[in-house]
Specification:
The chain is α/β, with parallel strands linked by helices. It folds into two domains: 195 residues, Rossmann fold, CATH 3.40.50; 72 residues, rRNA adenine dimethylase, C-terminal domain (Helicase, Ruva Protein, domain 3). It has eleven helices and nine strands. The strands form two sheets. A seven-stranded mixed sheet has the order 4-3-2-5-6-9-7. A two-stranded antiparallel sheet has the order 1-8. Helix 5 links the parallel strand 5 and strand 6. The radius of gyration is 21 Å and the shape is elongated. Bound molecules: S-adenosylmethionine. S-adenosylmethionine binds next to strand 1, helix 3 and strand 3.
Length: 276
Amino acid sequence: MRDRLFSIIYKYNLHPNKNLGQNFLIVPDIIERNVERAELSEKDIVLEIGPGLGVLTDELAKKAGKVYAIEKDRRIIEILRKEYSWPNVKLIEGDAVKVEWPRFDKIVSNLPYQISSPVTFKLLKHEFERAVLIYQLEFAERMVAKPGDRNYSRLSLMVQAKANVELVERIGKGAFWPKPKVDSAVVIIEPKPEGERIELNENLVKALFQHRRSTVVSALKKSAHMIGVDKKTIKSYLSSLPHAEKRVFQLSPEDVLDIEAYLEENDLLSKKWRKV
Ligand SMILES: C[S@@+](CC[C@H](N)C(=O)[O-])C[C@H]1O[C@@H](n2cnc3c(N)ncnc32)[C@H](O)[C@@H]1O
């Protein structure tokens, strides 16, 4: 696998594009483990973001019924078309953040780190069974952080409102060519059963996390404009706000839902920002 990758690189005189996060996996064991973690069968439709030179795509194609691979770099798409003749892989040329994703059951990818955040938020809007994704370590740690943790953030809260997430393996820089500057990690994401998923008002979450170390009362005063309410109006209601004295970074998704319900009851969320 490693030999094949480097022979393609030399053959096409490929210079990896840093801006596109082109750090290719060169350790077959990691690829194997991630394919195993996806528990693929012939019934599965798999989505891959950023197939690069096809090392992971090739293994996915052997186990899944169908693979969709979205790649932004036209040169890479041309190389993949010349080098492989997968019967069950459809290459989609485009930006994974912008193009519409096909329906899929599982997503397995070594993500370009520049788009980790928009891809993760986009993923959470889709129905799927399981995601096995490689992220930058620091991002992965934020995804799994619990309320009160040093690195608990808007991302942690939004992801955990809808899914169970687990960091299952750390990966050193040497597993990629060229070597990235940061370590990486594998994260498994599984959507919670429908009845347990919490739909949050994203705008309220943004308003709160603008001031993640403040108390909820103080954060809402400072961010009142972000939820479409003036400071004076909101101040008069804040004394009976649920979780008022908690710090924002200690809020669980359920706590935010309580706050949202209270603001809704008192007509304190701008209509523009209400959930439909
Ligand atoms: C980290 S490399 C992974 C390559 C390959 N899967 C591997 O593991 O060796 C990320 C890949 O994503 C592609 N890419 C970068 N930005 C993208 C975007 N916005 N949409 C789709 N693909 C993108 C890059 O061109 C590159 O091929």
